Amino acid sequence: MTETASASAPSHASPAIRHDWTVAEIQAIHDLPLLDLVYRAAEVHRAHNDPADIQRASLLSIKTGGCPEDCAYCPQSAHHKDAGQVRERLMPVDTVLREAAAAKASGAHRFCMGAAWRQPKDGPEFDAVLAMVRGVRAMGMEACVTLGMLTASQAGRLAEAGLTSYNHNLDTGPDFYGDIISTRTYEDRLTTLENVREAGIGVCCGGIVGMGEAISDRAGMLQVLANHAPHPESVPINALVAVPGTPLEDRPPVDPLDIVRMCATARIVMPRARVRLSAGRKELTREAQILCFLAGANSIFYGERLLTTANNETDADAELLRDIGIIVPGLALAAE
């Protein structure tokens, strides 16, 4: 029996994995009565995953600011000078590896590194990123990077270095994409994802809620991801952080229940992916985060800063996980 998009009460979770979703089907799931949606997502989640397995990923900006892309949400864009983001050079390898070691000591499973590039250039800086990947993997953690567009050759070299996953978000559905970004096409993004997959690297790909998109655009993004075979191993669900000086600075805060709906819908259409609560989680209450976990979210960014925006404090996250019965091994809360 395959998953259906009936707007009635949820049926029993199906073991089937589909890659033929329509936008209408996904939107019908998204728009189910909230309690029915969360219940159905929880069924699917428990059929395919251990609900106590919540991955903790730490994120570090290894090269900040000066990006030539014009993404409307991003303070690192060189187009948005009023955002006031200072351009910084690529961090030294040993500095990055010290940060990775600290993240591991705080209970992180995965260390993610982001560089504000349109596309990395072959040469010393790309070689330094390869050294960072090898160093993180030698610590026993998963390694993820986001560097912009990749050639097939660059993806192959990252795979040889041991890269676990490559992050390259679609951001939104194809119909709304042009309202947010003009310097890179949707097809450019899909080509990078193909290069990553062909190299044997895990795909980390999701999007942002709250940029002015319609529900159909959110469903459209999930449809593109869910119809990839295999599904992305990781699907970040970001709430827009409206940074002053960016074109989206006046966007209203995202309703936390919109994030719950996106987590639940992503879980139903991509049953085995890591659905990651990402940017904007700081604005969610503990209760909203727990509802997201119930609806199938099973990964968080862990640490007090994302690329350029604040994140929940490590102690607060460890305490939240402890209170729902998930212990972070070896981590003592600072308050203790």
Query: What structural category arises from helix and sheet content?
Result: alpha/beta
Rg, alpha carbons: 19 Å
What share of the residues does DSSP label as strand, in percent? 5-15%
What is the helix tally?
A: 10
Q: Specify the overall morphology.
A: globular
Spatial arrangement of strands, main beta sheet: 5-4-3-2-1-9-8-7-6
The helix/strand order is HHEHEHEHEHEEHEHEHEH
Helix share bin: 25-40%
Average pLDDT metric: 87
| Beginning-to-end CA distance, first to last residue | 50 Å
Q: Tally of extended strands?
A: 9
Tell me what you see in this structure:
With 336 residues, the protein is an alpha/beta fold. The chain is 35% helix and 12% strand. The chain is built from ten helices and nine strands. The longest helix has 15 residues, at 34-48. The chain is globular, with a radius of gyration of 19 Å.
